[in-house]
Amino acid sequence: MKIRAYAKVNLYLAVISKRNDGFHDILSLMHNVSLYDTLEIKEGKERFKCNVDLEWNDTNTLYRTLRLFEEKTGIHASLEIELTKRIPMKAGLGGASSDAAALIWYLCERYSKMEVIFDLAREVGSDVPFFVKGGCALVQGKGEKITTLAPLNLPLCFFFPDEGFSTPQMYNLIDKEGLLGKVGDPMALYEALKKKDIKNASLNTYNAFEEVVKKYHPFILEKAHEELSNCDIVAMTGSGSAFYGLKFEDKANEGFHLSASPRDVFY
């Protein structure tokens, strides 16, 4: 089986508060995009292959996902997994989370354990629950509170800086700079994007981590806006470092668009 695991962008992302457990509550408008990784999964002797340097141990989200499934269900799944990475790492596009959700979906479908799919997703990572169902959603809490919305249909393009950002480090800077709280309105943004209303979309587009970049990496912000100058809306996704540009009219076909699904499956 081959699975395309699609990336995401945060069309809106506010860090609301820091929790007692050390994590943060967020408010985000997330949407899948057509950029994807590919997982090829076969039953056989456990083996992992990847086109980038990823070890098969606890540092690998897919490894942790497989071990957690076995722990929670008592089922030993012996799999050959070949991962082809296209989604840049440390970019805020959710590549590892999307890959994990694809593997969780495969395991729960193959072994008839769909009743535990969201429990597994929540335990693997904060973004993984979104990728179970995907499309477009308002995401709150640590990432576990998901309100599904009708997908949007807009073309987009990307700017990928050479430098990636560490998510824990970016959250530390959010705390240091006091960038907590809601700015703008994600649902007003959603409605503006549906109507292709540039004014209200611009007023409500927000990413708290972009405020960190303005202070600590201003050259990346400047370069992103320069590279995406033909787009109507430009913003950073997740904790960075990737930027996306939305186009209300497809002025140049970049080959990417907002996607209605978190994955495609090929048998």
CATH architecture of the largest domain: 2-Layer Sandwich
CATH class of the largest domain: Alpha Beta
Mean pLDDT: 96
Structural class: alpha+beta
Helix content: 25-40%
- Ranges where pLDDT stays below 50 over 5 or more residues in a row are none
- Supply Rg: 18 Å
Largest sheet entry: 12 strands, mixed
3D shape: globular
Intertermini distance: 5 Å
Q: Would you report the number of β strands?
A: 12
Order of helices and strands: EEEHEHHHEEEHHHEHHEEEE
Tally the helices.
9
Number of domains: 2
* Proportion of beta-strand residues: 25-35%
CATH-assigned fold name of the largest domain: Ribosomal Protein S5, domain 2
Q: Could you describe the 3D structure shown?
A:
The chain is an alpha+beta fold and about 270 residues long. Helices cover about 35% and strands about 30% of the residues. The chain has 2 domains: about 1-150, Ribosomal Protein S5, domain 2, CATH 3.30.230.10; about 155-255, GHMP kinase, C-terminal domain (Alpha-Beta Plaits), CATH 3.30.70.890. It is built from 9 helices and 12 strands. Strands 1, 2, 3, 4, 5, 6, 7, 8, 9, 10, 11 and 12 form a 12-stranded mixed β-sheet that branches. Helix 1 (about 60-75) links the parallel strand 3 and strand 4.
Please supply descriptive tags for the structure shown above.
globular; alpha+beta; 12 strands; 267 residues; 2 domains; Alpha-Beta Plaits; 9 helices; Ribosomal Protein S5, domain 2
Question: How do the strands and helices of this protein lay out in sequence?
Answer:
Blueprint: E1 2-18, E2 24-43, E3 47-50, H1 61-73, E4 79-84, H2 95-110, H3 117-124, H4 128-133, E5 136-141, E6 145-149, E7 155-159, H5 167-177, H6 186-195, H7 198-204, E8 206-207, H8 208-216, H9 218-227, E9 233-236, E10 243-246, E11 256-259, E12 263-266
Parallel strand pairs: 1-8, 3-4
Antiparallel strand pairs: 1-2, 1-12, 2-4, 2-5, 2-11, 5-6, 7-10, 7-11, 9-10
Helix pairs in contact: 1-2, 2-3, 6-7, 8-9
